[in-house]
Design a protein that fits this description.
The complex is a heterodimer. Chain A is of the alpha+beta class. Chain A has two domains: about 90 residues, PH-domain like; about 220 residues, 2-Layer Sandwich (Zincin-like). Chain A contains eleven helices and eleven strands. In chain A, the strands form two sheets. Chain A has a seven-stranded antiparallel beta sheet, with no helix packed on it. Chain A is rod-shaped, with a radius of gyration of 33 Å. By secondary structure, chain B is of the alpha+beta class. An eleven-stranded antiparallel beta sheet of chain B has the order 7-6-5-4-3-2-1-11-10-9-8. The longest helix of chain B is centred in the middle third of the chain and has 35 residues. Chain B starts with 10 loop residues before the first strand and ends in an 8-residue tail after the last helix. Classes of the chains: A alpha+beta, B alpha+beta. Chains A and B meet through helix 1, helix 2, helix 3, helix 7 and helix 8 of A and helix 1, helix 2, helix 3, helix 9 and helix 11 of B.
Chain lengths: ~325, ~350
Amino acid sequence: MQRITGKYCMAGRSDTRPAILLLRDDGSLRVLATDFDYELTSTTLKECRQGDVLPGIPVELHFDSGDYFIPEDPDLRWTPRSGFLAYLESHMVMVLAAALMVPLSFWLVFTQVIPAGAKATAPLVPQEALNRVGRSSMKTLDYSLEPSRLAQYEQASIIKDWNKAAENAGLDNNYRILFRSASAPNAFALPDGTIVVFDELVSILSRDELIAVLFHEAGHVDRRHGAQMMVQASAGAIVYGLLLGDLEGLSEVVLGTGISLGENAFSRTMETDADDFAVEHLKAAGMSPDLLASALNSLPGSQRETNSWREYLSTHPERKTRTERIESASD
Amino acid sequence: MTTPESFANERSAAIEFTATPWGYTKLWLVNMLLTLATLGIYGAWAKVRNNQYLYGHTSIEDNRLQYLATPKQILLGRLLALGVFLIFVGVSMVEPMAAGIMYLALIPLSPWLIVQGLKFTYRNTAYRNVRFDFKGDYMGALYHFIVLPLVAAVTLYLALPWVIKKIHQFMFGNCEYGGEKLQLNTSTGQYYKAALVVFLVSIVAFILIASSMAGTLTTMQGSEAPNPLSFLPIILVMYFFSFLVQSVFNAMIRNHIAESLKADELVRFESRITVAGYLGITLLNAVLILFTLGLAFPAAKVIKMRYIASKTTVFLTPRIDHMANQVEGKESAFGEEAAGMFDTDLSIV
């Protein structure tokens, strides 16, 4: 027979009594109050419910009445095979595995699994949804963009040249080119096939270079990068909420930064994808792929020297890396 | 510093915190691994076990705090919150205009979420079998979390210390234990004193940051390429000072809150946190977290809790031995989980 010292607690009351639990080998047990030596309860182990087992915390034994007994000894287990989780949680092999696997899994989930999943599910996003996204994004963007100052005939001639190049490249042309003005030379694509070109870009590129940029933007649409980003952003937010919802303060900042760096890596692969698409179609249209490289080089800003650190912070790959890639493809 | 009145037959007790940084790290890591392996589902169990560990290792007079929420409650709350969140994400992608309206709808909804979340947390915390309870209502939350912050903004944040005081009073003064309401008799003057210190520290910070910024800008004029990394030291300095400022405020206010919180003839507290001590712990934790890329989060949490517990004394009267539980803990975890999902969690000072 085991004599276990501890404390008897009553259901829903703060009263506690120092007590001794007498446990027989057949599982029957009696709890006696230590101070007056009277019986508080008697039952069998089978009829009791064991509390959760946590490292360093005594395991409660709950009785039918709602009362329970807390032993003094935090290592005492009521049944021999209990506390599997506590065992895992304090076992070195498991802890070491977790210390390696947790960062690795995060890296895998955010830089590989979610992007790959997004890439796989992007074709499943219905075109109608993408069209709506495109239309409403354009509406929102137009609040901050100026109307184009290009003459009508110039816009028409760019569109005509583009249509011809697209036809020569065998590209299924359902793109809509829009002209706007903003402070920087840029172009972007929306998932419904709208490609927006800023006047500032038109003014610094030759016509052929502009066509090369349009092929690049068409690549984003064709490869459904917009849908991919949408799936990725929402999946990322959900996974982050489920896994790391409890984090607070600095940890949240550190991990959040790490994750967005990982996501930037994915956005850089989209840019390279779009470059490859452009090179392929420029060739098919009988134009030189070097046009894309020279368009990139005509953009202002002097990010010519390579800075490997900065590449991680960027959503676009270093220009040097991109132009080298394009030039090697054109050989 | 106000000296709280003592009760006639009180006895003093230390808060014993027996969790260890390494012990909690082990538990947290394994639970995180299981959560990852089950694609997040185990997260509900992990949350319960993490809390059970931290609460269970906190004891006053040999009685451990109890965390009584069940994983099932949390999982259900989480799934519900996830559903709502997905609808939000979906709508804001397809129709940004409609999303704007939905976010506006979230404003009157958020006091309800806050009350639900606080109720859930309080009611699932117990000491000696008696659960805590939160008695604040929707209108109270609306006033304290929507109206008062607007007042603070309108007064160019001059009213902010008073607003923070009111929010603390709402959160702690609506706490009940075994039918006994806690009172928080904080003084507005203490909040303004802390705010003044914070203001002076901020001015020093501003001067330092401004002078280093000037240095960086002049070196940048030479080269044509503005390197974004050259701003890194400034960002770090700004971060350091926001940390410093926050810690100073927290340390000063924490003592005041502890000493102003009591339930008549039942319990009162004393707190002896020092600004230097609290700041030291905060900086140590920041370094730990940065150098382990966040993995030291559980250790940092234990280090901070251990420090606060070691500086706090509880005074109890014999009435504590005969309290009766007044509440059940069966409500939904939706409020709390939604608050986590939409990142509107309250950070209790």
